[in-house]
Amino acid sequence: MITIKDLHAHVDTDDGDVEILKGISLEIPEGEVHAIMGPNGSGKSTLSYVLAGREDYEVTDGSIELNGEDLLELEPEERAAAGLFLAFQYPVEIPGVNMSTFLKTSLNSIRKQRGEEELDALALLKLMKTKCAELGISDEMMKRAVNVGFSGGEKKRNEVLQMAMLEPKFAVLDETDSGLDIDALKIVADGVNSMRSKDRSFLVITHYQRLLDYIKPDVVHVMAKGKIVKTGGPELALELEEKGYSEFLEDAA
Amino acid sequence: MSVSEETIRTVSDMAGKYEAGFVTDIESDKAPKGLSEDIVRFISAKKKEPEWMLEWRLKAYRRWLEMPEPKWSKVDFPEIDYQDAYYYSAPKGAGDGPKTLADVDPKLLETYEKLGIPVREQEILAGVQERAPVAVDMVFDSVSVATTFKEKLKEAGVIFCSISEAIQDHPELVKKYIGSVVPPADNKHACLNSAVFTDGSFVYIPEGVRCPMELSTYFRINELNTGQFERTLIIADKGSYVSYLEGCTAPMRDENQLHAAVVELVALDDAEIKYSTVQNWYPGDFETGQGGIYNFVTKRGLCEGRNSKISWTQVETGSAITWKYPSCILKGDNSQGEFYSVAITNGKQQADTGTKMIHMGKNTKSRIISKGISAGHSDNTYRGMVKILPKAEGARNFTVCDSLLIGDQCGAHTVPYIESRNKSANLEHEATTSKIGEDQLFYCMQRGLSEEEAIALIVNGFAREVMQKLPMEFAVEAQKLVGISLEGSVG
What we know:
A: 12 strands, B: eleven-stranded mixed sheet, ten-stranded mixed sheet
């Protein structure tokens, strides 16, 4: 269960201090998938960064709890160990570091923080192979440098692979559909769907309804100008697709 | 408070993360402080050297007095008081020449073991320690205290001993080659070394022999106010091959200590020498820059024969000041020179390092891959020269210089000199400068890595091309060292 209460966050820009999140409250019980939809600039990506603990944002008020644990007290890597995963909108390239090294370092850093035994190279290789096979990712990708020269689809599939390896309790997918054609989108959605379970919750951030055809949310929130302006069932997404966001922008103003 | 400020604090709280910074409590024999002809004679007498060696030293000493300090590099330090140091220091009893392992003071062996150097020959042979056998020459302050696997190497005809022993046992080889690649008057630091060198390693690989194991020398400065002046000479006879590695550490001291080494390599027809360095001398205080080693080293290889090859690989993480340019003289036709370098500076360190590739023979090839990483308030310069002489028909060079900056208080500089006097030469030069991105760090941290782990991973990725060139046995250690030396670097 992830509980966000009255979350306010600021960022320092060239034009001075700007408040981007203006009191977000949200509760996602275990096993549920919530979607956040909203126009560009509504603060959706900021919310994902604030959840993951990016230092560019200052949280001025409110709280974030994951199964009762106060995430705001934790460093980004501690939040990862607590079970939070962020699938990036723009996955970052790390030249010279191959995927298998990256996955091994990542998984073992998390295990170490949790006081679990680190996996040896062989066990990791086996796990990687299994997960790759499940997601239809070729092993060859494991030999390449992290995200270097990956196509848009490969980058997003790679995010899903990492999620599958780390088995988070709470996963945030930040515009995972952006830049994907329909086939790539289906592969990514299949990966996410296969991970849905009663003790894992998801927050799917998207601009378009399209993704929600493939990942069926339990609850849909509409975000505008740093606030959640409407919450409803899956039908809300369809309504938005028809009417657009303009009505909500006025409401929030 | 930002993550990075916290990191810096954590690291300064852990002050003295330099893990090799301990002192071994052992009595030593020292020459009186200062430098004079008498000191040169003292050193030569201690080593029971033949007359020709003493004369060679004295000639170098007289020349040294007249030579100016090299001032062209981008490093800054107060003038060195050459009279304020000891030029000879040996653990008591060790000065009379190396012995078998069983005779070595256990304290000394413990020192090397503490530094992770494999010294227990028997255990390694018996498979108690799980690693490939590596022969080690242990140089402690001014003397070689022991060399492992000598007998086993002897069976293959390989000579691996301290240079002091070589002067006694193989004078004809030493006389022929010493100073042939780095003449005493090459530069002031090399000249000082020629006058007062106290030990170092000697390697001779006979014709057609592939050296059966990795050879290595581990240099340790222990005594206070003592300079280390080692001299290494490696000769690979026709068609032979050797891979050699050196490692260096020193205790943490508030005073600067001088390390002026000379390394000469000679490769005859079809021979190959692979020389790797992991340099981790004490870098000085992280905050104030006080103390640390002045690492002024002259390393040069001569590809004397046809089809010969010399390859330098260096991982430079330590020293307050690094001044070194491992170079190749490509004299033999079709000979090849390589230089692979990772130089990391952090805190207040300064490094001015690179290579010279001098193409003399036909169809000679050289390759330079330099990866400079600057962090903290440090300064890191790549300085390199590629020179094609008129007779070097068909010479080729390929150079890549990449710099990575961590934080905004450090400097990275690239100074390549290219001089071509033959129209058929083909020279390529690429250079990039980049910064570790916040995006990269955050991405790694979201995947569970601490900031320091993230930096180590990103930097190792950046330096991968060079790290891969290290012998397997040392690659893992070197990767760890990269992480350790960059702790506290985020700003």
